[in-house]
Design a protein that fits this description.
A hairpin with a 5-residue loop joins strand 9 and strand 10. The protein has two domains: 116 residues, Ribosomal protein L1/L10, rRNA-binding domain (Ribulose 1,5 Bisphosphate Carboxylase/Oxygenase); 87 residues, Rossmann fold, CATH 3.40.50.790. The protein contains eight helices and ten strands. By secondary structure, it is α/β, with parallel strands linked by helices.
Length: 215
């Protein structure tokens, strides 16, 4: 199976043309259907992160759970900083914890706080695939946050299909195509048969019709 840059650009252009104007900036979403992958086996399910070379085209919220120096450094770069004390308070308010888990895209945590986070927020963050990335107290937090703002998750559950945002309407067709290629290249390396495990690929805007990427 071969998908060229030209074919991806063409499909993105068709999806853009077929999409009606909305009163918000729509995302470009990629749908990848897999084949010959038994999703009843947990080891075959994917949970991967891919850095999009051209970014997501929309704001990505990152929260840092840390103490002292790392919390102070994170205030300039993260959307939210949660201290150890605030973490314990959050654990008492399940509704607030769930809202936070839905609002924040990625969590980073000071490594020594991970056991506490697992106990207090694990039941909320775990099922959403949002358990924090542990970092040391002297971590280069600005670079880590910046990288996460360009990162997307590839996840499968019981069905052999992946849905992932690869850009927004404000980006060019070529930029979105580069992001699509990054996702496909990552899957090619991870899947047992590489591109042979990919049945079909579709691109669409949030509210628009799907356009098949020609193979």
């Amino acid at each position: 199976m071969a998908i060229t840059t030209e074919k991806i650009v063409r499909a993105v252009g068709e999806a853009r043309k077929a999409s009606k104007k909305r009163n918000f900036t729509q995302s470009f979403d990629l749908a990848i259907n897999l084949r010959d992958v038994d999703m009843s086996k947990p080891e075959n399910r994917l949970s991967e992160e891919v850095v999009l070379p051209k970014g997501r085209g929309k704001p990505v919220k990152v929260a840092v759970i840390a103490g002292d120096e790392l919390a102070l450094a994170a205030k300039e770069h993260a959307d939210l900083v949660i201290t150890k004390e605030e973490l314990e308070e959050l654990a008492k308010d399940k509704k607030k914890a769930k809202k936070l888990a839905n609002d924040i895209d990625f969590f980073i945590a000071q490594a020594e706080l991970m056991p506490t986070i697992g106990r207090f927020l694990g039941p909320v963050l775990g099922p959403r695939g949002k358990m924090p990335k542990p970092v040391p107290p002297n971590a280069p937090i600005a670079a880590i946050v910046e990288r996460l703002r360009r990162t997307v998750r590839l996840r499968t559950k019981d069905k052999p299909v992946i849905h992932v945002a690869v850009g927004s309407e404000e980006m060019s067709d070529e930029e979105i195509a580069q992001n699509v290629e990054a996702v496909l290249s990552h899957l090619e390396r991870k899947l047992d048969k590489g591109m042979g495990n990919i049945k079909s690929v579709y691109i669409k805007t949030t509210m628009g019709p799907s356009v098949r990427v020609e193979v």
